[in-house]
Write a structure and sequence with these properties.
The protein is an alpha/beta fold. The protein folds into 2 domains: 48 residues, RecR Domain 1 (Helicase, Ruva Protein, domain 3); 135 residues, Dna Topoisomerase Vi A Subunit, Chain: A, domain 2, CATH 3.40.1360. The chain has 8 helices and 7 strands. It has a 5-stranded mixed β-sheet. A two-stranded antiparallel ribbon has the order 1-2. Helix 5 packs across helix 8. It is elongated, with a radius of gyration of 20 Å. The mean pLDDT is 90.
Length: 198
């Protein structure tokens, strides 16, 4: 079998990106191939630099270009308040809403026993360590409002309650099954403002 031609390889790699279907991958591939040389080189450089210079914050596990990240390092943030989210892009969504002044903890997933994802596969142990070693007044659980997100929120609530730390859940101004990282700023602000105790 002969190796896939360059265009086919590009389409195949683009198809692996989230939210990109077969037609979208072909459209993107042709767009990239039509780009002028400086723009194409800039795209390649941005991907390489992003991969080389981005790592996980050792405190909150969000993506960062320095360690600890800017949020964890900031003296103007309320370090007694932690918002737990599933993915690094959720941090960016919360920050765009401009309503939260605490810090974050990124789980890198949600519990999904059917997919073999248990507490040991996401950053739960690291969260518990933070709660035991830092002065935390409240944990806001902002996992997605889908089955996995709700299961994760329930599990975390049971884990945190015995530590005598207030636990709340963001209110859902979002549709069930919605992705927090794709929500608009107003919905996130409202959900954060109307969080409820667990």
């Amino acid at each position: 079998m002969r190796p896939m031609e360059p265009l086919g390889q590009l389409v195949e790699h683009l198809r692996r990106l989230p939210g990109v279907g077969p037609k979208g991958a072909v459209r993107l591939a042709y767009h990239i191939l039509r780009m002028d040389e400086p723009d194409a080189a800039g795209l390649v450089r941005a991907i390489e630099e992003g991969r080389k210079n981005t790592s996980l914050c050792s405190v909150c596990f969000s993506l960062t270009d320095r360690n600890p990240c800017q949020i964890c390092e900031s003296a103007s943030r309320d370090h007694s308040l932690i918002c737990v989210v599933e993915m690094p892009e959720d941090v960016q969504a919360m920050e765009r809403a401009k309503g939260f002044r605490g810090t974050y903890h990124v789980l890198h997933g949600a519990l999904s026993p059917l997919d073999g994802i248990g507490p040991e596969n996401i950053k739960v142990k690291e969260l518990v360590t933070r709660l035991q070693n830092e002065e935390i007044a409240e944990v806001i659980i902002a996992t997605d409002p889908d089955v996995e997100g709700e299961a994760t929120a329930t599990y975390l609530t049971r884990l945190i309650k015995p530590l005598e730390i207030k636990v709340s859940r963001i209110a859902h101004g979002l549709a069930v099954g919605a992705d927090l990282g794709l929500a608009d700023e107003a919905s996130i602000s409202k959900a954060l403002e109307n969080r409820r105790s667990l």
